Amino acid sequence: MFSANPFSELSAIISPEIMQGYIVLMVILVIVGTVLDMMHKKSAEYFFENAKRAQKDAKRVLSTGKKASLAVQTVAGEVLTSSEFKSTRRRISHLLTMYGFVFFVVSTAVLIFGYATQANAGIWPALWHLGALSLAIGGYWFWFAIRVDVASEGVKWYNFNGRGDIFIVGLVSTATFALLWSATMGAGALNTLFFVLFIACATVLFGSVYWSKFAHMFFKPAAAYQKKCIKADGSRENLPDDYDLTDPSVQQRFPDIPEYLGMNPPNMGLGINREPPRHY
Amino acid sequence: MPTFVYMTRCDGCGHCVDICPSDIMHIDKVTRRAYNIEPNMCWECYSCVKACPHQAIDVRGYADFAPLGHSVRVKRDEEKGVIAWRIKFRNGKKDMDLLAPITTKPWGTCIPQLGDASAPTQEQRDSQLLFNEPKYIRMDEGDIHTLESNGLTMKEGVYY
Predict the structure, then answer these.
(1) Which of these, A33, A97, B30, B51, has the minimum number of CB atoms within 10 Å of its CB?
(2) Residue A253 is part of which domain span?
(3) In whole angstroms, what is the distance from residue A154 CA to residue A151 CA?
(4) What is the pTM of this model?
(5) What residue spans define the domains of chain B?
(6) Could you say which of B17, B81, B86 has the minimum Cβ distance to residue A240?
(7) Is there a contact between B81 and A277 if contact means CB atoms under 8 Å apart?
């Protein structure tokens, strides 16, 4: 099953041109939804104004090389490894979902544009199946256990919360029905049913960008990059410095530190982070 | 004036919701980010501001504390055991940094083990005093301790 290209059998019923047209339509829907979302939330305007304010408070000017290095750090940290998450469970679930989604979408596009009529498509069908599986595992983990409504607010897993859940429901249902469609290939009506549900869920996922959380994948990296820039240029959004408690100049400036914590303060542990925040 | 959340910094972890004594920090059901549901009821205790691991919560302070437009931001670093404050006036002329210890021992190592304490005697049970009360207000040693009984005098002003 994992090595079979599901779209090659589909090409007997639906022409590759229609499949390719559908992919193009989904890309257009994502672009339009993201632009509308950006206009509605004024997120681009916010980032621009925030950057201008930070520039005013900056203690040093960042060179182009430094900015490029911060951008690389953002891609390597926040984008590729989801390092912004403090909770390890959320981070692993996010990585499974994110990489699953990327592999699933990229392999779908490659299979439809490159191998629509060929049963043997190299590694791409395996990547398509593994992507969908990873997306489903990460997504269901989030849906049943990590979602804040379920983990902290006592909401049951089957309570669907409209706009708040449309993105994750779209993701897991698309992955699930894609896998079921591939697994039931040749099973007649059941296979057709799973295919219709797969397409319906994918259309909801990509068509609901304006209402869902889909657009976070564009503005979250921008926010992470800006956070690194304000630290590097010293403006820090008016936040205090990260003091090195062993630094003699810090100890001289704040004499309470060596008096109460000693010259080389120990690590005090996690504090309130020793327990997850789920008491409400 | 109440707390507000920088949406781009918040990741919806729920620490502020957990710690808010007024139960007014909630997670928005659509965006899954924290927000203050009842700003009028916020008394700016700063609990959520200090608990936020991303420094995503800020406060618009009252004008009697500093001129409007000022900024009072805080970073509580539990692993280092310190809290850092930065107070900045609107015109930027006053920009003050403060740093203070918040613990001298690792967290959780000095929690009293009340379960290991000896059970109260019948006499203690019949007494109107609460468990451990005599020990802490030291009625058992004769009388309540005062500055005078300890040979101390009140000094004027702030001192250490």
Answers:
(1) B30
(2) 242-272
(3) 7
(4) 0.79
(5) 3-101, 117-151
(6) B86
(7) no
